[in-house]
């Protein structure tokens, strides 16, 4: 009985994203047609199987997106909207790069130190928003947007102070981390010289930890309860203020890890070309993945896949690189709408089914009166 | 509450999407789709792939200047070209992939426009030894198959700085940089040096639109407009921008305020929106087109040499424009400065 | 005239309504009574266009109607006042009324005038400028009625309208309803409170197991006969048997006050109250007189400004809610949807809710983990022991009926063997069967030495269950009554402050 329930539930869980992707395809096609772009060619380019090299790039970019989306999802689970992941990961990556660049500790220990610094920095930066919310009732949406701006300027300022002598170079960056502390990649994709970030393992661990803490621990229970109904959580004894602060800090800590695969697996320093905007992509991906650890993984891969197809679209189909942004935007909107529709339908269906089953089972509906 | 958060999230996500679209009000690459088909064997033309910075072809500035070089090479040297542009916030691998896909499509001469391509060029050039690369604005990637095209932006900026100082009526001018990088600093330093040379007491406002690693300052018309409006309200009557596509906003603000603006990279009195061309006092021309054309023709005639090539005032790599005739009255003075720089009499600082 | 003939509505696997026959004469109050789950709500949803019948016809004034959406129903002059009010607290009455009906009279003066006219015309006493947040339950209900009138309804359906009202408000409501029928409106009144139905209705239709079993004349039927028609069994009684009250105080509230953070009179003012083991102390009062605050202070959701609260010997005044729950205070919240349940979570998670730190539900190193298998086992037992009707413990709590949700909450609290139970409106909005079961469980626990603070708007419940009744008014305890001797009128007078120095009120307990 319960397995059938679950099978249906899974079916419906998949129905929403599938529906959304179909809608996104239709809407995008209409946009293309209206712009006189070659609709068929665009889709055949987008859907052509990526080369091994591109597969590796997709997985790498998805790794980073995944961490960002999990950071956002932790907030979402609590009804907190941490827009500040963007600032948190940048300031965290900067300090991690700064510290790891000194090479105080040998080899892998230096990596761990860098990760610890990143988590700490991200956590502290997010804590500001958490504490403002708990103490002064400042909306985290406002405060994290502000903190993003502050992080940007603070990093720019400190980067100039801490950077290597720029000389004629246009790239300002921190001291590169020592060779011994660079995390080697995995040559996982046959036929590609591009390796998968070694810290993909970090992303997997974070995903597992996210699932475990959320679903198995008391803390996770309190967090989900608060997200599901703050009033019920308060009545159940959850200290919501503390939960807000703690979950904001954890969200920020995970946000701190976002830049780590880039830092230890690709750039080896924090500089002016460090990838921006990851925090905002994380918001969309968390929405797309429904805050579910596995859903987010698929969403991150889809997102990153579309990103990578942008080049092929320009070079092979001759359409604007912005098309991918349009597709991504349309997918997020349709997914969110589809989820809400399916969610409401689910609630209604389940109520109906429970009533139906009870009525079918109950010989008399008045059993309770005899209790 | 739950729903409020969701709604806020949707709105934010949508806004981000829109913001991304907002910076793409110009078609960026469709124009040369015909170049995708490799020509028939036999008279195989030179194949040139252009990897643009954020904004792409049609930014009326830096990328367009590079595109102009390609277009000239197409017309005069019969090369086949293909455009591809960067998107804001893309991962490093996307830049590598862009170069790689151009190479895969048969374009074995690559022009990477903008210093952000340095790591990608370094990596791809090492693997694709038969492909020749030109990297504009950066010496961070060097190799036997890489030519580094750089410019003496400080020298050109010195001249327009002097022009602004000579032309201002309020003794107050401004500078708007797209992103605060050492490269754009070079524009600022030269501009200030030129202005102060004319009038040491001049008031000069300086503003950068974004801080790295946020490069949206090169493609945000709204940010450029807001910054320029601020300066004009504060009393500046001439604003020089080194902000790529954001410069369009600077021109709009100048038009609205009835003040002057100075263009950058291209002769913007010719390339900007027709409605705002008349507010462009002069432009600091950075002849990226010359650099690009130079690279292509050197490959064509087999004289390609790797390493840095500096296009300075002397080499004609930078200059000021006279379109519109707004600086005709001071052209003599500017040409004097020009000669003094070329002769080494004036040393323009670069940082 | 409203006529429903042969209405049948099937849901997959079940027939919710079968051959419903209902005739409501114009200008009358027609009551529909029946157990929860008997099919009243489905029938009303059909009449209000929320659902479409599979068979049967709906006729209004002789015209057959097809109601596909509530808008169709509104267009046909049918309006509905839901049990759960649908008002935005931080909007004014005017804003709430025009919301969604901006096209009728705009949102300005014309709308305001129309509201005033309706309010004066039918004695609703509603100020269009008042903020809903400042209004009591009775007034909110009148706003809902006003909303329906504003949209042009001539036929008004009220779903369990008295569930949230005190006696005085009930009689005011009935006056309003009579006023409306005198003007030619038709009122369809859903209830299971038989006394009220007999008091107000012109005609009564009884629904049992999805079909109409009888139409009766209220003048010729007794409450007991009606109940038998309705449930086919004996009407449960709230009366508590033998006293089990001891001398051992289990919860003592001493001179406890709570300041209003926004200024103004104190929300609680010098409350003194002692609950002994085996004692049920009932709190009567018009809603909004400090009951909710009293509960929040006891449960640690707010810290008292003065005074102290002792659980046995322990001063819990400054404790967190979780510590207080751990110390053995069970809590049945007033609004189970907002405070009692996670509606989209499965039953077993709802059983853990409020008892996250309970050792039974914890496992693993440091007991950091939730022991879901233990929680599921426990839930299974609650479902059996407390007769929660559900096909599985994996369904969401939101899919259960109100009565079953409440039984789940009672079971969750009782299974943890609390020393004190704070029960706010434990049977509000549940059907007769579940009500009897809940009363039974509270009585059983009392026999086992539980101290209960019972807050209720249902005077039958208060009188029937309590060992002693206190009346709360403007944050003060203003009277103490013996439930065996008190009359509804006496309680009502004390609740409204009409007779502050009632002879039987204990002077010690009076406010200062």
Structure description:
The complex is a heterotrimer of chains A (371), B (351) and C (512). Chain A has 371 residues and is mainly alpha-helical. Chain A has 14 helices and no strands. Helices cover 74% and strands 0% of the residues of chain A. In chain A, helix 12 runs parallel beside helix 14 (322-361). In chain A, 57% of the residues are buried. Chain B contains 11 helices and 12 strands. Chain B has 2 domains: 40-151 and 289-311, Response regulator (Rossmann fold); 153-285 and 321-343, Rossmann fold. Chain B has a 6-stranded parallel β-sheet with strand order 2-1-3-4-5-11, sandwiched between helices. The longest helix of chain B is centred in the N-terminal third of the chain and has 21 residues, at 2-22. The N and C termini of chain B lie far apart (52 Å). The radius of gyration of chain B is 21 Å and the shape is globular. Chain C is 33% helix and 24% strand. Chain C is built from 18 helices and 22 strands. Chain C has helices spanning 40-47, 70-75, 93-98, 102-105, 109-121, 137-150, 167-182, 194-200, 223-231, 291-298, 321-326, 336-340, 347-352, 372-385, 402-414, 432-447, 459-465, 488-496, and strands at 2-11, 14-24, 29-33, 55-60, 63-65, 78-81, 155-159, 186-191, 203-208, 211-216, 249-258, 268-276, 280-284, 306-311, 314-315, 329-332, 362-363, 369-370, 420-424, 451-455, 468-473, 476-481. In chain C, a hairpin with a 2-residue loop joins strand 21 and strand 22 (476-481). The radius of gyration of chain C is 24 Å and the shape is globular. Residues 500-512 of chain C have low confidence and may be disordered.
What key attributes describe this structure?
heterotrimer; A: 371 residues; mainly alpha; ABC transporter involved in vitamin B12 uptake, BtuC; 2 domains; 74% helix; 0% strand; globular; disordered C terminus; B: 351 residues; alpha/beta; Rossmann fold; six-stranded parallel β-sheet; six-stranded mixed β-sheet; 11 helices
Radius of gyration of chain B, in angstroms, nearest whole number: 21 Å
Order of helices and strands of chain B: HEHEHEHEEHEHEHEHEHEHEEH
Shape of chain A: globular
**What share of residues of chain B is helical?**
40-55%
The CATH topology annotation of the largest domain in chain B reads as Rossmann fold
Sequence of strands across the biggest β-sheet of chain B: 2-1-3-4-5-11
First and last CA, distance of chain B: 52 Å
Uncertain stretches of 5 or more adjacent residues of chain A: 363-371
Mean pLDDT reading of chain B: 85
Q: What is the CATH architecture descriptor of the largest domain in chain A?
A: Orthogonal Bundle
Strand content of chain B: 15-25%
CATH architectural arrangement of the largest domain in chain B: 3-Layer(aba) Sandwich
